[in-house]
Amino acid sequence: MIDVAVIGAGPNGLAAAAVAARAGLNVQVYEANESIGGAARTQSLDGSEAIFDLGSAVHPMAMQSPAMRELGVHERVDFITPDLSFAHVIDDRTAYAYRDLERTVEELGGEDGQIYRRLVQPLVNQIDQVSDTLLNTLLKVPSHPLALASFGAATLGGMGLKELLGAKYERAAALYSGCAAHVAGGSQGPANAGAGLFLAATAHAKGWPIPRGGSQAISDALAAEATAHGAQIHTGVRVNHIDELSAQNILFDTSAEEAAKLSAGHLPEQLSRALSTTRRSPGSCLVHFVLSEPVPWLDPVLATAGTVHLGGTAKQVGKAERAAVHRGSATPFMIVSQPSQFDDSRAPEGQHVIWAYCHVPLDSPRDMRQEIQSMIQQAAPGFSEIILEAHVVTAKDLERQNAALIGGDLSGGTMDLLGTIKRPRVSLDPWYLQSKGLYLISSAAPPGPSVHGMGGYLGAQSMLKREYRIKNWKSVK
């Protein structure tokens, strides 16, 4: 019998495998797809000569993550960090978020610059302490209470800026609202505001980096750490029920619903029902474009941004995001990543790739290419004429590519306050599924979505403590 079986080889599953293997356990990883990476994969599509990030493309949380640092990702991956972390197009104006906060404040100017500074600077100054607190379960006694207090105060300020003061401080509010809108659904509560603040603060701390070669480089680095310590990874292997596995412990890097299905008959009925009825965020529709030249932005500064937000004022962004919950929007908030501006390995010589997406209703089959293309065209006249290829991935397609992305939900479940705390259950050890040896370690467990590997990193440590009484896995020889 093997010690640990990990179902799913996304970043969380691979991080868990690396932790367990470094603790000296026999670890086997099973991935249904033919390649590892989950939502951090980079591949060709439909025979294209270009390569595309199938999920995440830009990785601010990778730089903040203790898992990525401890498991050697920072040493194995060449992260390219643009000076201009992101920009937000309002109409004929643009707000810029440089890694240099002082430059950002200066570019915003006047009262906009000052209110933005007051909002994010306390978090930038304490970014490591804030990260240690937020990249964990929120029910844990905080190691850095002062940083948590600063974050709480800033969250209230962010809610006020986004919802009440957006007209007065239009550019600062738009810049911040674009970060908050990375969390689908347009929530007006503290969870959305806090997530947006954390994301904005990372832009001015360690930046929003792009891994050379694509997101796959992160997954490959985690796999290299796991296999270097003896873990074995099996691709193209679908597990239908945990009874098929001869393993003392099973870690699920899957959706909550899939974890319940695979462990049917082994979980407490109430927990199984809760996992099977996880509340979901809206889905997403992605379009991967191959271009004959860089995007011809009206504002040439946008060519230097790793990420561009399109969607107008804070009020317009919020309206579009709330519309995405049930019906979608003809003018959605949109996120554009242009990795080939910084990494020439993504497309044939002279060509460029961009990755653009917007939120749509959960499980929507809607193709948003025309809406996305039209909005880019407004900010970059001539864009339509330079398109060589366009590969559309609807919300339904996202789930087909990666079964963990139920209905195209990239968040692993709703990210409002309740969905953040009850993830998947209210507990100091939320990864443990109340049945010996069973643990949920995906984005459906704390600390939630983004490519940081912390769900697997923390979930594996929970398993080591509970099942083996190993409290310091780093010291195991």
Brief rundown of the structure:
The protein has 477 residues and is an alpha/beta fold. Helix content is 38%, strand content 16%.
Describe the fold and architecture:
InterPro entries: Amino_oxidase, FAD/NAD-bd_sf. This is Pyridine nucleotide-disulfide oxidoreductase domain-containing protein 2. Interacts with COX5B; this interaction may contribute to localize PYROXD2 to the inner face of the inner mitochondrial membrane. The structure is a single chain. The chain has helices spanning 11-22, 60-64, 66-70, 73-76, 101-108, 110-125, 127-134, 145-163, 170-180, 190-205, 216-228, 256-262, 269-276, 314-323, 369-379, 395-401, 417-421, 454-468, and strands spanning 2-7, 27-31, 42-43, 52-53, 79-80, 84-89, 94-98, 210-211, 232-235, 247-252, 283-291, 305-310, 334-337, 352-360, 387-393, 438-440. The longest helix has 19 residues, at 145-163. It has 18 helices and 16 strands. A 7-stranded mixed beta sheet has the order 7-6-12-13-14-11-15, sandwiched between helices. It has 477 residues and is α/β, with parallel strands linked by helices. The mean pLDDT is 94. Helix 1 (11-22) links the parallel strand 1 (2-7) and strand 2. The relative contact order is 0.19. The protein starts with a strand and ends in a 9-residue tail after the last helix.
| Count of discrete domains | 3
Question: What kind of sheet is the major sheet?
Answer: 7 strands, mixed
Instruction: Tell me the CATH topology of the largest domain.
Output: FAD/NAD(P)-binding domain
Amino-to-carboxy terminus distance: 21 Å
Number-wise, the strands total 16
Overall pLDDT: 94
Rg calculated over all Cα atoms = 21 Å
Write out the strand line-up for the largest beta sheet, numbering strands in chain order. Answer: 7-6-12-13-14-11-15
pLDDT < 50 stretches: none
Determine the structural class based on helices, strands and strand pairing: alpha/beta
Percentage of residues in helical conformation: 25-40%
CATH class of the largest domain: Alpha Beta
Domain Amine oxidase: 13-381
GO molecular function: oxidoreductase activity
Subunit structure: Interacts with COX5B; this interaction may contribute to localize PYROXD2 to the inner face of the inner mitochondrial membrane.
Function: Probable oxidoreductase that may play a role as regulator of mitochondrial function.
